[in-house]
Specification:
mainly alpha; globular; 7 helices; 3 strands
């Protein structure tokens, strides 16, 4: 976990550091997970009741309908309600599944984290793109990367 991120408010430090670690662990774009975490903007211990009787739980507002499938692995709603990075890891795992298995462009697939219903997905998608673009700018300013040029000229006598 990253110790401090000076330009990130204290109440967002865990979101950013846990999102970065989870994105790396599950090989998903960090800007995407940061955008979803920011958009969901839940809090540890939070339970939000949905109209369909399910709940959105914790920092990533993980829906209890998805947790039913994970019960066989011993994962409970209480596990995703806790503070710390575990809920971010679980969300990254689920997002990776959407990115690998669902149809549509990357934004539509990532927005399936929220809903597969087209009208909800479309709204979520538009906001997700805006947020991910902003996070890309932030990441580029804090974690510069460099293009590596590889010389593929064979070595040895010609």
């Amino acid at each position: 976990m990253i110790d401090t991120l000076p330009d990130i408010p204290a109440h967002r430090q865990e979101m950013v550091s846990c999102s970065l670690g989870a994105a790396l662990a599950y090989d998903i774009p960090a800007n995407l997970l940061l955008a979803i975490a920011e958009k969901e903007s839940g809090k540890p211990g939070q339970w939000v009741r949905n109209e369909n009787g399910t709940f959105d739980v914790g920092s990533l507002q993980f829906n209890t309908a998805y947790l039913r499938e994970l019960n066989r692995f011993g994962i409970t709603p209480e596990d995703v309600a806790v503070p710390g990075c575990y809920p971010f890891m679980l969300a990254a795992w689920r997002i990776r599944g959407h990115l690998r298995n669902d149809h549509g462009d990357i934004w539509t697939r990532a927005s399936n984290y929220h809903s597969r219903t087209p009208r909800y997905n479309t709204r979520y998608r538009a906001d997700l793109i805006r947020r991910a673009t902003r996070w890309t700018t932030w990441l580029d300013s804090h974690f510069p990367t460099h293009d590596v040029v590889v010389d593929v000229t064979p070595y040895g006598p010609r």
